[in-house]
Design goal:
With 336 residues, the chain is an alpha/beta fold. It is built from 11 helices and 11 strands. Strands 3-4-5-8-9-10-11 form a 7-stranded parallel sheet, with helices on one face. The longest helix is centred in the middle third of the chain and has 15 residues.
Length: 336
């Protein structure tokens, strides 16, 4: 593929410029299974070569594994990276289950950033997200504590993940919010309308995670049995065999458009997300250089007005379960 770096985009009105396609680093942990067979240094190094500057991780990925791996990979190239991480989810063992508690307390905010900086091996992060709003604590208190980290030089910009319009407004009034990270793809459109409108009104950039529909929109997942034994998608309603079959027409349309453009289904799915606005920077994750290069190539795919209209008309046929509709919920999922 061309070695010309991808274009940059501004995350809202924050002054933070990043490559048009970022890299989600949750894959550099056991969440999707088979992590030991990957080469994160190679993938991240190649991403930086191609102009992918926004690297997105979180303390809960692993937990801790992803931050450690990302820190090692960028050690010699820190000035090329817009480094984002998250806090606010605390995993604990309860019987034979892992329970994800939300903790947006100021005390934990201060504790979490120091631990993340140590694992990443850096003096600051460029974008620090609250992974999920803590409904037991006013958002003003959490964002106020995050703002103290900006003053201390440990954080450059603040972000939220899975926040409602009211939470965004209250947070932004406390300290400017640079980005909202939330799920957004052809088959996940919950944020269209009030949430997306609020972001644009306030000048908050949008960072979609799972822009490839957790891999489904690439056409590579035919049944749940194809997922690794430890893959968290095995427990999701959209990845039952019945749901996969019901949504086959969505993938068929994406593949049809891809064939017309001489590109991959995944590139069409990403190109659709990119076409939703210049303030949108998707962060597809991958463990493989070949898929990374395909994802970056999506920035050069120009969908026609007819393509976009057809894709805009797509709706998922199978409703998601409650644990997959996460905006401002007190019990979050592990992924994002």
């Amino acid at each position: 593929m061309s070695e010309t770096p991808i274009p940059t985009r501004a995350l809202g009105r924050s002054g933070l410029d990043v490559g048009a396609v970022g890299l989600g680093c949750m894959s550099f942990s056991p969440i999707y299974g088979d992590f030991e067979a990957t080469a994160p240094d190679e993938v991240i190094g190649r991403a930086l070569d191609l102009g992918v500057s926004l690297l997105d991780t979180a303390d809960v990925y692993g937990p801790h594994t992803s931050e450690e791996v990302v820190g090692q990979a960028i050690a010699a190239r820190r000035d090329e990276v817009v480094l984002a991480t998250k806090f606010g989810i605390r995993p604990r063992i309860e019987g034979d289950k892992v329970v994800m508690d939300v903790d947006g307390s100021p005390a934990y905010c201060r504790e979490a950033i120091d631990a993340s900086l140590a694992r990443l091996g850096v003096g600051h992060v460029d974008l620090y997200y609250l992974h999920r709003p803590d409904t037991s604590i006013p958002i003003e208190e959490t964002v106020g504590a995050m703002a103290e980290l900006v003053t201390a030089g440990k954080v450059r910009h603040l972000g939220l993940s899975e926040a409602s319009p009211d939470t965004l407004r209250r947070a932004h009034a406390t300290h400017p919010i640079a980005a909202l990270q939330t799920e957004y793809s052809i088959w996940s459109r919950d944020i269209e309308g009030e949430i997306l409108d609020t972001c644009r009104e306030l000048g908050i950039g949008l960072v979609p995670y799972s822009p490839l529909g957790r891999g489904y929109l690439t056409g590579a997942i035919g049944s749940r049995d194809e997922l690794a034994p430890g893959d968290f998608r095995r427990g999701q309603a959209r990845f039952t065999d019945e749901a996969l079959d019901a949504n086959r027409s969505v993938v068929a349309l994406v593949e049809e458009i891809a064939a017309a453009h001489g590109c991959t289904a995944g590139q069409v799915a990403l190109a659709w997300v990119l076409a939703q606005g210049d303030d949108v920077v998707p962060i597809p994750g991958t463990k493989r250089v070949s898929y990374l290069e395909q994802n970056v190539g999506a920035a050069a795919v120009e969908l026609t007005a007819d393509d976009l209209a057809r894709l805009d008309g797509v709706r998922v046929d199978v409703p998601r379960s409650a644990d997959e509709t996460w905006i401002n919920r007190s019990t979050p999922p592990l992924a994002s």
